[in-house]
Amino acid sequence: MLKIAFDPSYSHLLPEGHRFPMLKYELIPGQLLYEGLITGQNLFSPARVAEEIILLTHSRKYWEDLRDLTLSPREIRRTGFPLSKSLVDREVTIVQGTIDACLYAIDYGIAFNVAGGTHHAGYDWGEGFCLLNDQAVAANYLLNTGKAVSVLIIDLDVHQGNGTAQIFEENPSVFTFSMHAGKNFPFRKERSDLDIALSQGVGDEEYLSVLSDTLPKLFREAVPDFVFYLSGVDVLESDKLGHLSLTREGCRERDRMVFQHCKERGVPVEVSMGGGYSPKISDIVEAHCNTFRVAHELYF
Fold first, then answer.
1. 69: alpha, beta or left, given left = phi > 0 and alpha = psi -120 to 50?
2. Histone deacetylase domain: from which residue to which, for each copy (predicted)?
């Protein structure tokens, strides 16, 4: 069964001025329900992640300052959000959604969090609208509970997963891969196990060729028993923050490549949706829905 973490807080608890692009969190499951691809049984609402699980990944001081709303003005500016209790509540729900999706992926091969992909949050910082790193926390949860031994993180958001890279820089159990637009946020990059920085304007043919060459090498080197996939659609040509030029079909083929590699090897994969900032929200929703459609075709 395809299981998808979704909670109204994903969009409702965002500050004014940030809600429009994040309406996708409601529209994606709505579209999938309309198509009949899923039913209400496929959706689940996560609880809050426990503090001890957060502390497997983030520093105690950073977490407590975030929880208690005592981050410095400079730290708050770095997150891009005005800090509030509701925003922290939203974040801890997203993180638990990714953990829950991991457990469903172990059972069913693949599972999703409609939100997540908060890959700019590092060990002791938030950045770029990311307060806690959902996939990093979930990876450490799997490793610490013995549910995984070797983790591969495939980050295909248009922005480098700098927080994820920094968190796992010294951890041989997690292989971090980020393929992103080189001249784009974050302007100070961290070092992933493998970074591929693409030139501005790269389109379907070059992008998919590079990915096709890279994926087999990743699986050979990392030998993962669990995969995290960050499937941002800010790689689209229509995206106002992306600087790459993929079509919707190219983006769909990207997802197919990742899922086929996981499925052929019998490796469960958790998918967090990541970014998407096209001016027309229909472009964002359709591209994200394609990710679910491909997963449904391959797995169910």
1. left
2. 24-290
Q: Is the dihedral of CA 182, 185, 188, 193 positive or negative?
A: negative
Distance CA 148, CA 141 (A): 9
Q: Give the pLDDT of residue 256.
A: 98
Alpha carbons within 13 A on the beta-carbon side of 108: 21
Q: Residue 228 is inside which H or E element, if any?
A: strand 226-230
| Lowest mean pLDDT across 17-31, 52-66, 96-110 | 17-31
Domain residues for the domain of 192 are 3-299
Residue type, 252: R
How far is residue 280's CA from residue 124's CA, in Å, rounded to a whole number? 34
Contact 226, 267 (CB under 8 A): yes
Domains held by the chain: number = 1
Q: What's the CATH code of the domain at 247? A: 3.40.800.20
